[in-house]
Amino acid sequence: MIDTHCHLIDPQFTRDFNEVLKRAQRAGVTSIINAGYDVKTSTDAIAMGKQFAWLKPAIGIHPNEAAAELIKEMGSIEALLSHGFICAIGETGLDYYRDFSAREAQKALFHRHIALAKKYHLPLLIHTRRSIDDAIAILKEDNYHCGVFHCYSGTHEQAKRIIAMGYYLGFGGVLTFSKRLQEIFKKVPTDRILLETDAPFLAPEGHRGQRNEPSFIIETLTIAARILDVTPHHLEEIVDHNATTLFSL
Ligand SMILES: [Zn+2]
């Protein structure tokens, strides 16, 4: 089972990092996309990937960070690509919910990430909050069609447009308790679905309010399989195949 979006570089994992990895392995997690959200955490994700080959680094600057300031650091992000085994660009995207930084600055930062993904032929890990339409418009403008809208929570109509552009949809803990999202999930073609935790955030049903961790992806898999009326084993094969294809694992 592949966890396609996780932040093991988050300080919340410092205390019991090795136990978290052990529990993930015991639960059957075989690979984790470990996404940085600034230069430091992106560097940390690479270091973790060198130590543990199954922790696949992704590098980028999250739109919640001060976009106007951090765009200057995109050169450092590009320099990290020389390590050669980066599997995605991100976490990137647009966040109009928390709105920590001006929308124009976020858009400029997103364009820079897309340019890097294009140049190095890597998929994008795209974060959106109340910003899906703008994210779609920017990806169209930049003519790039490879990546995932992670932690998807938009409408069915938006999902159709995203899929038509060649993107995947990532589903995490919210799927286990949001009836609205479950109805949308049912209608998504299975060859476009990825599963993720987004740990340490957004724990699934049964763990809500706790720190999320990769081993909890099994809860999401179980409920997702029930929604689609297939066995967890069958769904795992499908989503792992999708993840392997997108991230060239
Ligand atoms: Zn994330």
TrEMBL record:
Keywords: Hydrolase, Metal-binding. InterPro entries: Metal_Hydrolase, TatD-like, TatD/YcfH-like. Pfam families: TatD_DNase. GO terms for molecular function: DNA nuclease activity; hydrolase activity, acting on ester bonds; metal ion binding. It comes from the Bacteria. A divalent metal cation 1 binds at residues 5, 7, 91, 198. A divalent metal cation 2 binds at residues 127, 150. PANTHER family: D-AMINOACYL-TRNA DEACYLASE. This is Hydrolase TatD. It comes from candidate division TA06 bacterium DG_78.
